[in-house]
Amino acid sequence: MLEAAIGLMQDGQNPSVSDVAEAAGVSRATSYRYFPSQAALVDAVIDVALGPILDWSPHSTDVNERVANLMEVSLQRIGEFEATFRAALKLSLDQWAKRRAGTLGTEVPFNRGHRVGLLQNVVAPLRGTASEQDLDRLAKGLSLIFGIEAFVVLKDIWKMEQDDVEQTINWIAQALISAVVNKEDTTGREH
């Protein structure tokens, strides 16, 4: 069932649990036993798509090297499963709109947030040399470029190819780290 769900999502669909049951050739009851909601289904697919990203652990205490290594592991994987990540983003945005309109009902929310722990871990070596506020700001800044959202902007709006996307994201990451290490804020003034 998981392979069927991945296949459907990689084809650009945002399948329901019933769609996955049909594609996998199993009963709806069986499918719902494993995936009680679309959110549970998408969450399971995302865990598979993230794969080595979730297993990543740093091998260096240098923040620049840590970020470069995480990006090397992650950006290619995000590109490989881009359609799946876009489908998950769509579900998240659809649920946000339903919640805002008061029409979400009893639909189980799709929770995102794998990147928070990863990025807090990446910037941890700066603890003690940078303020907690700067570390928090750095992790949050990196979260803006670490995920499918950056791909959507760079590919859809800027019409960039995968290699250019990766180079741009890595450049932004290094600039953010440099801003914290050099104790500059976004205006270029010293703290």
Question: Strand share of the residues?
Answer: under 5%
Secondary-structure-derived class: mainly alpha
Number of helical runs? Answer: 11
Largest sheet: none
Average pLDDT, all residues: 93
Order of helices and strands: HHHHHHHHHHH
Number of strands: 0
Coarse shape:
elongated
Kindly provide the radius of gyration, computed on alpha-carbon positions and rounded to a whole number of angstroms: 19 Å
Helix percentage range: 55-70%
Terminal Cα span? 53 Å
Spans of at least 5 consecutive residues whose pLDDT stays below 50 are none
How does this model look, in words?
- The structure is a single chain.
- This protein is mostly helical and 191 residues long.
- Helix content is 69%, strand content 0%.
- The protein has eleven helices and no strands.
- The longest helix is centred in the middle third of the chain and has 20 residues, at 82-101.
- It starts with a helix and ends in a 10-residue tail after the last helix.
- 27% of the residues are buried.
List keywords for this structure.
elongated, mainly alpha, 69% helix, 11 helices, single chain, 191 residues
Question: How are the SSEs placed, and which strands pair?
Answer:
Blueprint: H1 2-10, H2 17-24, H3 28-34, H4 38-50, H5 52-55, H6 63-80, H7 82-101, H8 114-123, H9 132-143, H10 148-157, H11 162-181
Helix pairs in contact: 1-2, 1-4, 2-3, 4-7, 6-11, 7-10, 8-9, 9-11
